[in-house]
Amino acid sequence: MELSKDVYEHMTNFADDATILSMLSVNKKFNDEIFFQRVLTRKYPHLLNFRKEGETYKQLFIRMTYYIAKNKEEFNMPYLDAKSYNPETFYKKRKRVNKIDIQSLPQKASFFSFLDKK
């Protein structure tokens, strides 16, 4: 069964990511690719550029909303509506930076500032 245009419009305009994901667990009819393409196009148009080969719009939506939520929760980083902003890449790089020994940061910073002077 195809969803009515009114339901699509309401969900894409007013529902937050958590509500959309909750709807998936309650109503399997929301597995419609057109629905997820519309949600992404309306809410996160730049994220369409990060769709992997063979990845469905639903998979892209779930993957990206996961990293958007993790960035907000762990780093207080909101979603940035910019072509080059990939929430997944940002999260993974930030996690790597957080693993660096805090004591070594001043030494590393002075080393890199030396390189910048050349």
Overview of the structural elements:
With 118 residues, this protein is mainly α. Helix content is 64%, strand content 0%. The protein contains six helices and no strands. It has helices at residues 5-14, 17-26, 33-43, 57-75, 87-99, 105-116. The chain is globular. The protein starts with a helix and ends with a helix.
Structure in a nutshell:
With 118 residues, the chain is mainly α. It has helices at 5-14, 17-26, 33-43, 57-75, 87-99, 105-116.
Shape: globular
Total DSSP E strands: 0
What's the helix-strand series? HHHHHH
First CA to last CA: what distance? Answer: 64 Å
Average residue-wise pLDDT:
79
SS-based structural class? Answer: mainly alpha
**Helix content range of the residues, please?**
55-70%
Rg over CA atoms, rounded to whole Å, is 19 Å
Largest sheet, if any?
none
Report the uncertain regions: 114-118
Number of helices: 6
What portion of the residues fall into strands of 2 or more residues? under 5%
